[in-house]
Automatic annotation (TrEMBL), chains A, B, C:
Pfam families, A to Z: MC_hydratase
Name assigned to this protein: MaoC family dehydratase
Domain of life from the UniProt record: Bacteria
Transmembrane segments: none
Record organism: Roseovarius pelagicus
Lineage per the UniProt record: Bacteria, Pseudomonadati, Pseudomonadota, Alphaproteobacteria, Rhodobacterales
Length: 343, 343, 343
């Protein structure tokens, strides 16, 4: 038993430490095809090398959320194997597209620790970075999780709570080198709506729904080498149900949002996100969005929209929280992100 | 809601119009691998680059039916989102193989319109073309669908019913440039039967069966970016069942037909096809074929067989229609196509 | 019916014959991605081109078990279509890694025959070889199966029982050209345990479990072009259950063994294996290993471990056989293999 990974406990983290995560991963057209099989993904920039080249990129990148999952998956054995809850995300920035042929690895800096008052667990903040084979950072985000203590009675570490921006400012967003939407082909992209057509406060019901199967979420979660037992082993939880990886819901909702946001091509910022309720096989996932903000960028023809993306398994579109301020039981995900949109 | 695609209604089509479909798609070895995982596909020309090169092609193409699905999938948001029925196919020709690395897009010319006598719907005929990144047409077929009217009372358009060949003549078939079956390796292909071994009227029971799962047909249908709600959303139909994309049954039957038609390598013509009854998860798909015609081609060692391919979910092989002339309830598909076979 | 493959019967084999199996297969990044989606595979050498290059290989190979499945799948139509039981494996050696772009074909030499005393069936031994497009042998193994006779009363062939090594000697193992673990990065590989840290007799519970779905085992089995009806057709067996391909259990167990054997990177020898009990969808597969032997190799920094890998669907880890010497009902697989491990 000593040779298997027991995961880290709250006591095993110290602020300032950098964790180098294992199992680098080379992605190819295979990952891209699987992403399109697993999600109804249709953003043209990620579907067509030709469309991407017309927009100034060398080829169609791997979907930004797939890049996120690859980077995230590597952190699971070191960060969330003994996690009681995935509490939040902040300051996520996609710094460079990931292309077929790239090899991705991850590191995490421990940037905050706070033991819970019950003495049995604590909150760990990490800033995770994804790197490609040239040592360039492709993604950078903060995540915080509640982690079990190994010994409930042990001393609490010094409290360090990182200062995190609730929202990335537009000038913090990184537009991929060369991106140019001046000659953007709205016909091939699938919708005519430009950046200027979206108003702050506007809401969009993405209409479509997908009923989730066990085989699909497990294929996805394994593809990102996420090893958390609860996703795969029907014996891991008392109720015998396999909990669906929250990232599967993110990708499903983002793909569904094509219908109304087909031109919100590139995800460049993650301001925050909450997995409001668990998702299980048999749930039918739907999505709606709200335009939270708009910003210009320095790239030709490229604007940015700050969007709330909400995934549900039923209920009225646009319903989010109850009178008690808590998420309604049908809400699965509340994500706040920045996307690049043609002007 | 205004930003999502409501689909087109019968009134939105006019004869002579060309619809440019959205979301071009680059295919890779990933799509090829997924096709082999989703269907028991074993035709050697599509499985082995080396076998394809021995037959004069530069590499193994993407399966012809996969090429069809990619082209077809793009048309769904513009042609069949409000379709009440998929009525037929005609004059389908594969003009050029699709290879990994190719980027495929689709256009459709509206070639016929006829309002139904009930005034609530009408039939739309489109000629759809698939194009690669060099602007070459890779596939060309006619499909007609029954589409709902937006306003039942509105005026009927002029009736235009296109003249369509019930069967493509052999000299209309396009043999891929360079194809040469002179040194065809029957051993590696899996069966010894040549073009001359098949007699018109001969029937073949393909013996094998595959029980269909929800996850599989959804993976396939998403891979082709077909977005029709009925395939994915268990809430889309009153009976709560997800209807399986007819193309999934086509590919399953074609792959099963390897057993007896291993040398019917390339699909080059689609004379017609009917989705006789709906297919659902849990059905076990089987297939049988009938040789309808034989023809020579100008390519070395290459003959053509016209084949009826029938998919069933039970019942006797070779049973097709009842005394009333209607398809038997277990028949799923009746497809009429031309394939290239070594002499 | 005459054109479909009825499979071979016991009478159809003769010692000395070489069977050339059909349908060569080119593999790509697509097969690699699917392997990672189907199994929780995390061995770094097969996940990262960069890691593989640091170990002296040109790129990350296709997983060794995937190579095995591709080679094995081709033999099914000729060897096991009428098999009553898959009896054993011996003398399996991986001779060369398989890389994306390689085209694999298989041949089998019939090396043994023994009719059963009931006169209704017999045992056939074959030595199967996998070849790449350069004619190099990539894999070589012996398998024996019990095959039905076509005519129960027919004459028995001369009995030939091949002499097979119960265990490959270390000097029979082939270390891939260039492999060098001198600068092996244990951090990126995921575990610190070196060859010298494993003691003969040591057992490891791999802890994780995966609940199997019908869609997944069928995707996998089709991907390897294994056509045995019992895996796909719920009507093929009286109980209506689809039997899971034994190789799916092998790959699942091997991938699960990462947790504790992350550095057992390359599988180079297969000493033997038994599919102890059938596996069905809904079973939760777990795994444990026992270190059976250790050996040095001539390659820099490279040692070999002989490992027993046991897959179960429940029961106590490390339990294998009952007092009657038979496998316990929860044991699915008992595999004996050699793996290469950094010193």
């Amino acid at each position: 038993m000593a040779k298997t990974n027991p995961g880290r406990f709250f006591e095993d983290y110290s602020v300032g430490e950098t964790i180098r995560h294992a199992v680098p991963r080379t992605v190819s057209g295979g990952e891209r095809a699987l992403y399109h099989a697993l999600y109804p993904a249709r953003h043209a920039l990620y579907s067509s090398d030709e469309f991407a080249r017309e927009c100034g990129l060398p080829a169609a990148p791997l979907d930004d959320m797939a890049a996120f999952h690859v980077v995230f998956g590597k952190t699971v054995p070191d960060v969330s194997l003994n996690a009681l809850a995935n509490l939040g995300y902040a300051e996520g920035r996609w710094l460079r597209p990931v292309y077929p042929g790239d090899t991705i690895s991850s590191t995490s800096d421990v940037i905050g620790l706070k033991q819970n008052s019950n003495g049995k667990s604590g909150v760990v903040w990490v800033r995770t970075k994804g790197h490609n084979q040239r040592g360039e950072t492709v993604l950078d985000y903060v995540r915080w999780v509640m982690v079990r203590k190994r010994e409930p009675g042990s001393d609490a570490p010094e409290v360090v709570i990182p200062e995190l921006a609730s929202v990335l400012k537009a000038d913090q967003l990184v537009v991929p080198e060369g991106l140019d939407f001046t000659n953007y082909d709205f016909g091939l992209a699938g919708e005519p709506h430009r950046w200027g057509d979206y108003a702050v406060g506007e809401t969009i019901d993405h209409v479509d729904g997908v009923t989730i199967e066990e085989a699909e979420h497990m294929l996805a979660t394994r593809l990102w080498q996420n090893t958390a037992k609860v996703h795969f082993d029907s014996g891991a939880r008392p109720d015998g149900r396999r909990l669906i990886y929250g990232g599967h819901v993110i990708s499903m909702a983002r793909a569904l949002s094509f219908n109304g946001l087909a031109n919100a091509q590139m995800v460049v910022g993650l301001n925050g996100g909450a997995h409001a309720n668990p998702c299980y096989a048999g749930d039918t996932v739907r999505a709606w969005s709200e335009v939270l903000d708009r910003a210009e960028t320095s790239a030709p023809g490229v604007g940015a929209l700050r969007l709330r993306l909400v995934a549900t398994k039923g209920g009225d579109p646009f319903a989010l929280k109850g009178d008690d301020g808590k998420y309604l039981p049908d809400v699965l995900l509340d994500l706040d992100y920045w996307a690049l949109v043609p002007l």
